Amino acid sequence: MLKLHNLSKVYRSDEVETVALNSINIEIEQGEFVAIMGPSGCGKSTLLNIVGMLDSPSSGEYIFMDEDVAGYSEAQLSEIRKHNIGFIFQSFNLIDELTVEENIELALLYHNIPASERKARVAKVMDKVGIAHRASHMPSQLSGGQQQRVAVARAVVGDQAMILADEPTGNLDSAHGQEVMEMLQSLNEEGTTIVMVTHSPAHADYARRTINLFDGHVVTENLRAAE
Amino acid sequence: MIRHYLKIAGRAMARNKLFSFLNMAGLAIGLAAFILITLFVHNEFSWDDHWQRSEDIYRVEGTITFPVREDRPTPNAPGPVKDLLEQSFSGVEAIARHIVYPTTVKVGETLYAQQVIHADNGFMDFWNVPLLAGDSGQALSDPSGVIISERLARTYFTNTVALTDVLGSTISVNIQGQMKMFRITGVAKNPADTTHAPMDMIVRFNRQNFDGARWFSDGWRSNPWKTYIRVAPDVDVAAMEAELPKLLEAAMPPAAADQDPARRRGLVLDLRAVGDIHLYGNDSSADVSSLYGMLAIAFLILLIAVINFLNLSMARVAYRSREVAVRKVVGAGNTQIMQQFLGESVLFAFVSLLLALVMVEVSLPYYNAFLNAVIEIDFLAEPLVLVLILLLGLGVGLSAGSFHALYFAYLKPGEVLYNNSSDNPGGSFFRKVLVVGQFTIAIALMTVAVFVNRQIEYASRVDLGFDDQNLLVVSGVTADVSDTFKQTLLSSPFISAVGRSSDVPTEGSEDRLQILPNAGGEKVTLDGLPIGPDFFSVYNIPLAAGRYLTNAEPDILRSRLEEGEYRGAANILINAAGAKVLGFDTPEAAVGYVGQVNLSTSLAFEGRIVGIVQDFHFDSLRSAIRPGVYYVDQMRIPDMTLRIDSKNRDAAISVLEEAWREFFPSDLLAYREMTQMVEDQYQLDMRLGTMLTGFTILAFVISCLGLYGLAAFMIERRTREIGIRKVLGAAVPDIMGLLLWQFSKPILIAILIAGPFAFLFLQDWLQAFAYRIDLTLLPFIGVCSATLMIGWVTVFGHVLAVSRKPPITAIRYE
Ligand SMILES: Nc1ncnc2c1ncn2[C@@H]1O[C@H](COP(=O)(O)OP(=O)(O)OP(=O)(O)O)[C@@H](O)[C@H]1O
Ligand SMILES: [Mg+2]
């Protein structure tokens, strides 16, 4: 699905130069569930942002679905992102002024899909994540777990092939965290590629493969023993 | 999609009610002010564009030129001009001309003052005056027919129901002293409010009516006709105008053989587009530059309002960055984000525009009363205005939304989505620049307003050089009864003095006389004023040297008894300025001087200066006092000035009315008060000053709305910091000082920028006044302090609230 080759990211400010990613080589297959772990500041979010095309690398290659996207323009990246990648964040990033239903629908608004079809797809995905009974609530009226489920629904409603999740359980208690993990797992079983950053080894266990980062390097890659 | 945007815009507005209100109120006030000003200016520029084919109609305006004195521009042309134009230019489709004749009309037993139009052939077709009753083709075919406007019909015949009832009624019109009967043959639609030529009463021009009138002749010597031409649509009018001097030279009679050709009185004709007459015509009193000034103010206020909007929107960027970032993550492109926010601010602008139109509608009656105008918004009648107003809304919306739309379009979603708190986004420097810009304009406007008003106030206190209190001016006193009429008035105990002259102060004189100066050489020009010997005493104008004129024979240049003949020599007076241009160091030195005085190029007498009066204002109070010469001419002193007893004003006026009825039974008495005439001189300026003040206040209100919103926002951002400071030991006054200083800085910078601009402008503006104030620093310092105070009052509530908050709430805030 995607391949990073000698990929680096350097942040430059006036005085200091921070190497957030240092010659990373990673390959992720279609349908994989990958967890990324590592201490704070080691570059996990940076990596996820580059994979998700919210940011661009300083050097190296990024092959996404057989295309080298490293030199692509914002508009081109946005176009690829729109059709292929969904995001889930630690702070759920729902829009306060929109209802649950509208928040999810937002992900279809920029896809030229007629309103009736949008409604149908949103209804279906709300059912799937079990939030249908809260469709017309505002985000502030939901628990954290429920909010994150809305965020998951929003990430998948456009039939994205890959979901990038940055500490999706970071703000949740363990019960709610478990719920979200199970949801991701079932999505993965339906064929969605999932790349997830987490600090929780238990949650990393849901993934088939774990990449450990340290100071911008890939240290180890563990494959979970087949069950 | 649009519904989605509307929804989110509406909810975002509802969530920040204060911001939304400040934003909308500021923009609405700004738009309302802009619309009010531009409506007035538009109204001024759109006079006389309602005639059929207005753009092809021109008035022929004659300027009489003199080799030695100032040209005299008039709105009229001599009679032969009509034939000349008709024969010379095939592009002239039609010519219409009329004489405007102010006179008295008698209906039943009541007298009315009325301007009567004596219309030459073709008038009705040319102007296409629509008749509400009567037949426009026939109405003037009868020489005793008269057309009156609907409003006159309603004034003259108060219980008129149907206008056709008025037809056939008779009225009398005073023409050259004789009451002539006319029968009403037509009632015309009321003339437009915005025309230089209101046609309320039209009769057919009849040559016999003006036989023997001094001002009327068929030849080139008199200049009585308002002459209009209509040209074919593609005619080059400028080329026509360029040919006129040559044609005139060929057509006008040559000077008498013995006359020096260089001293001939000449004529220049201009073709003035009918739409330009109100502002640029030879008889226009409009002040076009102040119209442009007002327009500039309109745009400045709009600019302030747009800056306000920009600023408040930018301040709120943080609240909506998350939304934008999420949108981008789910696939919105830059253009879509731009569209959303531009659309939002355009929508916002239109809502404000609607609000502004309501404000305009509500304030128009007062505005009209103040401006003495009839401005209205009628979208049905003028769809173009609707289009322009919609464009205004669109333009304001787009420019006001441009910055935050751009900011959002280039927002990096990653930077926002990983943050829980919405950080102060970039652009805080930019926002400060905007506040400074806003206050720079407001302070500059305020400074200009203060000095303009001070100048107007100063000018209105200028020493007139005469006593303008308790003076009534009556015009049109004919020479034959002048003396007896005066004696009748003086027999009343309520009238203490009566003085006569050809014109009165504030009107200026048209006569320019040449006098040989003391040192010889070129003759110098002085303003001439025919007077009676009683003129200076009624105005209380003191002597600087010598004596006043009397009724003694040597003091009289032209006597009523000598049938219009000037004498070869007479005693004269001059003013102090006159003594100076004649080359005398002191007024005393001029007494006894004898010099040749030219009344016109061909008429001169020997004048002996017997007295010098102190300078007094006779022309516009804006201009410096001109050198003047005064001589007794009993034939040309129709203006009578009465000094009345202030305690018995009404009694004095009834004495006047009674005497007038006795002497001039068929003329309506019209008297003017000198104080009013003096005040009228300032009226335009005063109105300008009041308007400037009003709109400056609006500019301040808008700026303060912006400052208020910004203060709320900034303080909210700093709540945590302030809590920490307090934990560390800062007291309430320290915090308040800190915050007030923060809000004073942009105002102080604005003062530094606004000052020089305002002063440069004022320096230029004051040049137009002969008597002007000094540009001192003190009023400016006053403006600056006032601005700071206003700024402090605006933010004080917020500052106090946050300074007093217990630190723990501030720290928990997040
Ligand atoms: N915009 C930026 N400018 C400069 N340096 C940055 C920027 N973003 C990240 N960094 C630096 O890059 C490095 C990696 O940051 P990153 O956010 O990827 O870490 P992380 O592994 O996600 O940490 P955490 O587990 O705390 O979220 C850090 O040293 C960070 O300081
Ligand atoms: Mg991170």
Automatic annotation (TrEMBL), chain A:
<dbReference type="InterPro" id="IPR017871">
    <property type="entry name" value="ABC_transporter-like_CS"/>
</dbReference>
<keyword id="KW-0997">Cell inner membrane</keyword>
<dbReference type="InterPro" id="IPR017911">
    <property type="entry name" value="MacB-like_ATP-bd"/>
</dbReference>
<dbReference type="GO" id="GO:0022857">
    <property type="term" value="F:transmembrane transporter activity"/>
</dbReference>
<dbReference type="GO" id="GO:0005524">
    <property type="term" value="F:ATP binding"/>
</dbReference>
<feature type="domain" description="ABC transporter">
    <location>
        <begin position="2"/>
        <end position="226"/>
    </location>
</feature>
<keyword id="KW-0472">Membrane</keyword>
<dbReference type="GO" id="GO:0005886">
    <property type="term" value="C:plasma membrane"/>
</dbReference>
<dbReference type="InterPro" id="IPR003439">
    <property type="entry name" value="ABC_transporter-like_ATP-bd"/>
</dbReference>
<protein>
    <submittedName>
        <fullName>Phosphonate ABC transporter ATP-binding protein</fullName>
    </submittedName>
</protein>
<dbReference type="GO" id="GO:0098796">
    <property type="term" value="C:membrane protein complex"/>
</dbReference>
<dbReference type="Pfam" id="PF00005">
    <property type="entry name" value="ABC_tran"/>
</dbReference>
<dbReference type="InterPro" id="IPR015854">
    <property type="entry name" value="ABC_transpr_LolD-like"/>
</dbReference>
<dbReference type="InterPro" id="IPR027417">
    <property type="entry name" value="P-loop_NTPase"/>
</dbReference>
<keyword id="KW-0547">Nucleotide-binding</keyword>
<dbReference type="GO" id="GO:0016887">
    <property type="term" value="F:ATP hydrolysis activity"/>
</dbReference>
<keyword id="KW-0813">Transport</keyword>
<comment type="similarity">
    <text>Belongs to the ABC transporter superfamily. Macrolide exporter (TC 3.A.1.122) family.</text>
</comment>
<dbReference type="InterPro" id="IPR003593">
    <property type="entry name" value="AAA+_ATPase"/>
</dbReference>
<keyword id="KW-0067">ATP-binding</keyword>
<keyword id="KW-1003">Cell membrane</keyword>
Automatic annotation (TrEMBL), chain B:
<protein>
    <submittedName>
        <fullName>ABC transporter permease</fullName>
    </submittedName>
</protein>
<dbReference type="Pfam" id="PF02687">
    <property type="entry name" value="FtsX"/>
</dbReference>
<keyword id="KW-1133">Transmembrane helix</keyword>
<feature type="transmembrane region" description="Helical">
    <location>
        <begin position="291"/>
        <end position="312"/>
    </location>
</feature>
<feature type="transmembrane region" description="Helical">
    <location>
        <begin position="778"/>
        <end position="802"/>
    </location>
</feature>
<feature type="transmembrane region" description="Helical">
    <location>
        <begin position="746"/>
        <end position="766"/>
    </location>
</feature>
<feature type="transmembrane region" description="Helical">
    <location>
        <begin position="384"/>
        <end position="408"/>
    </location>
</feature>
<feature type="transmembrane region" description="Helical">
    <location>
        <begin position="21"/>
        <end position="41"/>
    </location>
</feature>
<dbReference type="InterPro" id="IPR050250">
    <property type="entry name" value="Macrolide_Exporter_MacB"/>
</dbReference>
<dbReference type="InterPro" id="IPR003838">
    <property type="entry name" value="ABC3_permease_C"/>
</dbReference>
<keyword id="KW-1003">Cell membrane</keyword>
<dbReference type="GO" id="GO:0022857">
    <property type="term" value="F:transmembrane transporter activity"/>
</dbReference>
<feature type="domain" description="MacB-like periplasmic core">
    <location>
        <begin position="20"/>
        <end position="246"/>
    </location>
</feature>
<dbReference type="InterPro" id="IPR025857">
    <property type="entry name" value="MacB_PCD"/>
</dbReference>
<dbReference type="GO" id="GO:0005886">
    <property type="term" value="C:plasma membrane"/>
</dbReference>
<dbReference type="Pfam" id="PF12704">
    <property type="entry name" value="MacB_PCD"/>
</dbReference>
<feature type="transmembrane region" description="Helical">
    <location>
        <begin position="346"/>
        <end position="364"/>
    </location>
</feature>
<feature type="domain" description="ABC3 transporter permease C-terminal">
    <location>
        <begin position="695"/>
        <end position="802"/>
    </location>
</feature>
<keyword id="KW-0472">Membrane</keyword>
<feature type="domain" description="ABC3 transporter permease C-terminal">
    <location>
        <begin position="296"/>
        <end position="402"/>
    </location>
</feature>
<feature type="transmembrane region" description="Helical">
    <location>
        <begin position="429"/>
        <end position="452"/>
    </location>
</feature>
<feature type="transmembrane region" description="Helical">
    <location>
        <begin position="691"/>
        <end position="715"/>
    </location>
</feature>
